[in-house]
Amino acid sequence: MRSGAIVGALLCVALLLSGCGGGGGGGGNLSDGSNNGSTSTSANSVAMTVDAGPVSSIVELNLPYVSVTVCAPGSAGNCQTIDHVLVDTGSSGLRILSSAMSASLRSALGSQLVAGRQVVECMQFADGITWGAVSLADVKMAGKTASSLPVQVISDPVYTTIPAACSSLGSNEGSLSGLGANGIIGVGLNLQDCGDSCATNSANSLYYLCAGASSCVQGAVPTAQQVANPVGAFSGDNNGVLLQLPSLATTGAATATGSLIFGIGTQSNNAISSAAQAFPVSSDGYTINTLYKGANYRSFLDSGSNILFFPDAGIATCALYGATWFCPASQQNLSAVLSSGASNSTVNFSVISAQYLATNNYAAIPGIAAPSGGVFSSYFDWGLPFFYGRNVYIGFAGRSNPKGSGAMYIF
């Protein structure tokens, strides 16, 4: 069966609040042809797979997964490799379900304290929240290690009481079925998941300081102690990431396999092609512009959004799996122009009826889309379908790459 949460966009809502960050028909025309889908595994890359997900009875849609090794700080033996961790370019930081870790590993992780109180986070995504303690772990991927990295342990067994100010912000997704993953690795534009606003503002809605298991109050947390982008904490190849997935027909495939590569322009496998352009993001929300059918929309590239979300009252919709989808009577071949600064690129894409989901169990389908809604109703969310067949680089804020400095998309 299909997951009931297949429209869940895992975009960090702080994109709006603090700049935090969060195909082609028949011929796969969403792709620019720059990626043939080869899988790179080396000292700076890991395999990335779009498959049915970690729950055997549920088929997830368009969720890219990697495996992450989590170790107790300084330990070479108390480690665990956790599979099906969702790669999300719309948020920053590693979050692992407590239930995915052994009790011995979980208890050996370091505590993250501020003023003697445990740091606990209410992470907010477009489709819900995750609640759990911030702990310290050594995080290993390929040949890279981020030592004593602040990570969120989702639904940890100690801090089980979620303050009303957090639970009121959305449904609790702190379970395997809620996330459709064993965790989330946020490799978005920022090095931390909040930044200065959470370091100086105690009423930041993300971070809580807990004197006891059920006595948590919102509090400021220094930037260095916030949940951090693992790739930014590596000793090298730490200026961004490259996501590669193969080109697919609009109607998709059972699975898809590509690569998550660390660094931009630092190794032969993350070099930038001469045709690629840099799209610096705005400072007020980490977005670029999308011109679609004569209207301009703030937009972003989010691998954690499993389909394309955009406003278009001219495309027929239908209700399916408890959500609203685009369901045109025939395939819609569309295009939009993405731009920022002096860069612009026309992207062709196609949309088929979401009723197609009921006829197959494919995990990778580029042609599914839905109207954007809620706080993102006026945004164009380029979800995972944008990434099929295209080399997409995420350049981190505060770092440089051959295309320049600062947060940017490159494709």
Quickly list its features.
411 residues; mainly beta; 6-stranded mixed β-barrel; 5-stranded mixed beta sheet
Please characterize this protein's 3D structure.
This protein is mostly beta strands and 411 residues long. It is built from five helices and 28 strands. The longest helix has 6 residues, at 103-108. The radius of gyration is 20 Å and the shape is globular. It starts with 13 loop residues before the first helix and ends with a strand. 56% of the residues are buried.
List the helices and strands and how they pair.
Elements: H1 14-17, E1 45-50, E2 64-71, E3 79-88, E4 92-97, H2 103-108, E5 110-111, E6 113-114, E7 117-125, E8 128-141, E9 144-154, H3 164-167, H4 176-179, E10 183-187, H5 196-200, E11 207-212, E12 215-218, E13 240-244, E14 256-262, E15 278-280, E16 288-292, E17 295-301, E18 308-309, E19 317-320, E20 323-326, E21 332-340, E22 343-351, E23 369-370, E24 379-382, E25 392-395, E26 400-401, E27 404-405, E28 408-410
Parallel strand pairs: 3-10, 4-9, 17-24, 18-23
Antiparallel strand pairs: 1-2, 1-14, 2-3, 2-8, 4-10, 5-8, 6-7, 7-8, 7-11, 8-9, 11-12, 13-14, 13-25, 15-28, 16-17, 16-21, 19-20, 21-22, 25-28, 26-27
Strand content: 35-45%
Which sheet architecture does the biggest sheet show?
Answer: 6 strands, mixed, barrel
Strand element count: 28
**Helix/strand class:** mainly beta
Shape summary: globular
Low-pLDDT ranges: 4-30
**Distance N terminus to C terminus?**
35 Å
Strand order of the largest sheet: 2-3-10-4-9-8
Task: Kindly state the percentage of residues in helix.
Answer: under 10%
Specify Rg, calculated over alpha carbons.
Answer: 20 Å
Mean pLDDT: 91
Number of helices: 5
